[in-house]
Specification:
mainly alpha
Length: 88
């Protein structure tokens, strides 16, 4: 009873196909009704798409100079020396 037979899996496939067909029919009907609405209102043209704002150029990454890196390294070594001294 717990096993799905070929008939049951075929039924699922049929239902899935029917669902896809229904969705396709609904989409075409919506498009048709939209055209009818435009004719009734008097607008037979499609709206222009909204202009897309140009993407900003990615920001350039900042880099440390060799002197800056040396200062940071020296300061970190000083901090670790202080921590190690306090631990003893």
């Amino acid at each position: 009873m717990g096993c799905a037979g070929p008939l049951e899996s075929g039924l699922r496939y049929t239902l899935h196909m029917q669902t896809n067909e229904i969705i396709a029919a609904l989409d075409s009907e919506i498009a048709r009704l939209s055209q009818v609405k435009d004719l009734i209102i008097g607008t037979t043209f499609k709206r222009a798409p909204r202009p897309v704002a140009p993407k900003a150029a990615p920001k350039k990454k900042r880099h440390f100079s060799a002197e800056g890196l040396a200062r940071i390294a020296a300061a970190q070594k000083k901090r670790w020396a202080k921590v190690n001294k306090a631990a003893k």
